[in-house]
Specification:
By secondary structure, the chain is mostly helical. Helix content is 76%, strand content 0%. The chain contains eight helices and no strands. Helix 7 runs antiparallel to helix 8. It is elongated and about 50 Å long. The N and C termini lie far apart (39 Å).
C-alpha cells in the first residue's frame, strides 16, 4: 500500500503550482494552462488538474479550448471514482459542447458512471442514447459490448 504524505508536506507543492497557474492565467497563456491541467490529470493529481481547468473556464468560458478544459474537470472526477459529480460535469460538457469530437467518449463515461453506481435503468438509457446518436463511433461499439457484459437488455 502506498502511503500518501500528510497534507502539510504537500501544501507548498500545490501552492507552487497554483501560483504558476495563476500567473499563466494573468498572462493570458490559455494553451499552457490547459496543458498544465492535462499534465496534472495524467500524473494522477486530480484535484489540482480540476482547479487549473476551472480557473481556465472561469477566465475564458467561450474559448475554443473550453471544451477540453470542461472535459478535464469531468475526467478528474471520473478517474478519482467520484462518479456523481463526474456525471454532472460530463452532462455540462454534453450540453455546452454538443459538437465536440470527444463527446461520444464522454457519453460512454456517463454510462460507466451509472453502471458503477448500480443505477442500471439509467445506465441502459445512457447506453441506448449513445448507440442511437453516435452509431458509427468507436464509443458506440464499446457501448454495445459493455451493455452485453452488464447484461442490460
Amino acid at each position: 500500500m502506498i502511503r500518501r504524505p500528510p497534507r502539510s508536506t504537500l501544501f507548498p507543492y500545490t501552492t507552487l503550482f497554483r501560483s504558476k497557474a495563476r500567473r499563466l492565467a494573468e498572462a493570458g497563456e490559455r494553451g499552457k494552462l490547459v496543458n498544465l491541467a492535462d499534465g496534472k490529470l495524467k500524473e494522477g493529481e486530480y484535484a489540482l488538474a480540476r482547479s487549473f481547468a476551472k480557473m481556465f473556464l472561469k477566465r475564458w468560458p467561450k474559448d475554443k479550448q473550453a471544451g477540453g478544459a470542461q472535459l478535464i474537470v469531468a475526467e478528474s472526477f471520473f478517474r478519482a471514482k467520484d462518479y456523481r459529480p463526474a456525471i454532472l460535469e460530463y452532462d455540462r460538457f454534453r450540453k455546452g459542447f454538443p459538437k465536440h469530437p470527444y463527446l461520444p467518449g464522454a457519453l460512454l463515461n456517463i454510462c460507466e458512471c451509472f453502471a458503477a453506481l448500480g443505477m442500471k435503468p439509467q445506465a441502459k438509457a445512457a447506453f441506448d442514447e449513445l448507440i442511437r446518436t453516435h452509431k458509427k463511433s468507436d464509443a458506440a461499439s464499446r457501448a454495445r459490448r459493455r451493455k452485453k457484459e452488464l447484461k442490460l437488455k
